[in-house]
Every structure is written in C-alpha cells, then in structure tokens.
Amino acid sequence: MDNIKEKIKNIKMLAFDLDDTALDSQGRLAPETRDAFIMAADAGIEPVIASGRSFYSLPEELLDIPGVNYAICSNGANLFNVKTGECMKAFFLSPESVDQIVKLADDYIDVLYLDAFTRGVPHSDRRLLDTLLANEKISEHRKKYLRKTRHAEDNIRGFIQEHKTELDCMNYNVFDTSLFDELTSRLEKEVEDVYFTSSIPELIEISFKESGKGPGLRRMCSYLGVELQNVAAFGNADNDAEMIRIAGIGYAVANSSQVALGAADVVIGPCWENSVASTIRDIVEIVRG
Question: 3-state class of 87 per DSSP?
C-alpha cells in the first residue's frame, strides 16, 4: 500500500471508462463524480475519458465538465478533443477486413446483428434495434441510450459497403453467447489486421489492429506529454484490461469482469457506490500533499 501511495503522488492523468465504472449501472453520472473530475483538473490532473463508446455516443453532461477536454473513443480507434469536436487521431478498418468481417457474419445471419461506426457515429441493423427495443428484459436505460445514439439502417450490409473505407469499428451483436468463443476464434484466424474485444457478454467489438484502450492511452499520453507511470486508469470490463495493466496504477471497480480484476493493482468498490469519485478525491488529496 505504501508503494501505491508513492505512485499516487506523481499522478498527472486519470483515464476512466464510463459504463459501469464512472457511470452507475443505469448510465448516470453522479454529482459526486462530476465534482471529483473538476477537483482533479483544478489540481493539475488531466481527466481523460476512455470508452468503447463512439464520440457521438458520449453523454453530453460529461463533455460539459470543466477540465474534461479529451477522450479515447471506440476502444482506442479515435482520440478526440471533446470541447472542439476535433478528431485528433483516427484508425479505420481496411476494406479487405470489412469484407471478411461481413462474410463471417453471414454464416450466422439469423443470430448475429451488425453495427458499423463511421467517424464516431454509430449505425445499427434496424432488426437489432427492433429486437432490443421490444425485449422486456432490456433495461429502459439501455433502450433510451439506443434510441438516442443509434442510426437505424434497413440495409446495414449495403451501408457498410458504401462506407467501408471510413469505418472506425464494427460490432457483432450475438444474443446466443454460447457462440462467443467460436466467433472470436474465427475472427482471429480468418480476419486480417483487426483488434477485437468485449465490454458486455453479447458484444464483440472489432477495430483496426492498432486500436485498443491500451494503445489509445499510450497515444494520448504522448500527445499530452504525460508518462504512463503517471496515469491512474479505471475500468470494469475486458476491453479495459490492457489500459488498467499498463497504467502507473490500475483500478478495477468491484463489479468488474475477471479479466479486468486480474489486471488491476487495486480493486475499489462497485460503480453504484460512486467508488471512482471517492478514489479520485483520495488521489487529489495525496497529490496536493
């Protein structure tokens, strides 16, 4: 613990996942968390969003927080200045990889639905949205999020072909989670130049091979002139694990996946207890001495 405290003294950046980490299980930003980000910025610590969400899916109330100026989006495929909307860095799937991703998906066409993201804007198969919005087991919070952020496409494959040179990432939405291992194994063997990960059990998120929150964090550190050892990273899911592992201090909330927990230096309370907020306040107090 003394070693952790010594590391905290030199923290200059916070990299924080959103859903089920900095946001609660209903996707809400608590006033305590908002205040903690402002407190960190006032102390000279840069709060940076690090999300699997695309830029145009980020919560507006988060983008308006003073001192929150940058975001790692779409699992590291994009870096954004959130105040100006400038995309500072972008990676796109190669057209060849896009074709391979769709071809593989066609083998599961009745149970697999596609999302495609163009320069931070999410587009979804209308069949997927209709299925999710009619499902009584899907929370109202998630339905509201989908209605607000997704552009429904009647012909998602046609849309993908039309835009296949400008896709940040693509998703496999698979309700039969028993297929998850089979799909990831096939992706690894059959699709070139891609990185894939998961934030929830029924979702496989696919982007260019140089993506990922870990590489995204490295690029953001380089841009801002901050060493990785001076970063505290917070997350909860498999797609957060590399970021948590390479940061100077990696925090996982208690409601994390086993992969994220295994990558963490410190496990804090669950997201619904505003644990990120209380941890940030502790970090600020130690940094200020």
Answer: strand
